Amino acid sequence: MFLIWISVFILGAIIGSFLNVVILRYNTGRSVNGRSGCLSCGYQLKWYDMVPIFSWLSLRGRCRKCSSKISIQYPLVEFGTAILFVVLFWSALPFLEYLNLILLYFIWNAIIFSILIVIFVYDIRHKIIPDSLSFTFALLALTQTLIIFPFGSELTIVNYLNLFAGPLLFLPFYLLWKVSSGRWIGLGDGKLALGIGWYLGFIYGLSAIIFSFYLGAICAITAMLIERLKPKIKNITMKTEVPFAPFLIIGIIVEFLIRIDLLGISLFF
Question: Rounded to whole angstroms, what are the CA distances from 230 to 33, 130, 146, 180, 216?
């Protein structure tokens, strides 16, 4: 089992390295198949310059040739993806007696969370959520919902709520976007909510969104309070644009692992 855990970690780090390439080259016209190189001097990286996590550490975050700084994003995404893969594998352990099922469960969720990692970092970098990634996530989540929807068996209100959870969770974001003409929140967050609803179901999808609003508010207020202690820095205000997708994705991870019904909706069904 120890070797399996290590293998899953290494796989996650390798996938994280690939996700870094996707994040960097998405919507730039560059293919993900091209050789990687230093963004400052163009030095083409050797294989030993691209070992996930360890190459960045051994080079102390600088290019081997020109010594320009290499973004800390690279090891953070690689390490974060590796840890997330380990957590996903741990969440699949209840299916340990069924090897095919545990592999399917792990691979399916690893694909979905890989997409979410790209959205997470891309929104931080560019303050935009690519429609193609949001709709891919939503399509996969809807497929999952349709597969597990109990056709031909007893249907409950919760089943129907889960089936329409995507549009139901999208609607509040759309209304906020429409009323404020996009000043309060971006429509991209609503498109991401489509996938959240179908992936987690109505109750836990709604809980993930509520959790993300609380977390976002706490982080924003904390940042403004810290800024007050540093009067020379005056960049964060109530009008400052803040990428919200990272908070939504943290909410997804929390609800995926813990399944907390924040509003107690399940008590009524």
Answer: 45, 35, 52, 31, 21
Distance CA 209, CA 261 (A): 11
Distance CA 68, CA 41 (A): 8
CB 162 within 8 A of CB 201: yes
3-state secondary structure of 42: coil
SS3 (DSSP) at 44: strand
Q: Which structure tokens are listed for 176?
A: 């906020």
Q: What is the pLDDT of residues 85-128, one digit of tens each?
A: 999 999 988 877 777 888 899 999 999 999 999 999 999 999 99
For the chain, what are the domain ranges? Answer: 1-126, 128-269
- Residue range 131-185, pLDDT digits in tens: 999 999 999 999 999 988 876 566 788 888 999 999 999 999 999 999 988 788 8
Please list the residues that pair with 44 across neighbouring strands: 37
Whole-angstrom distance, CA of residue 112 vs CA of residue 102: 16
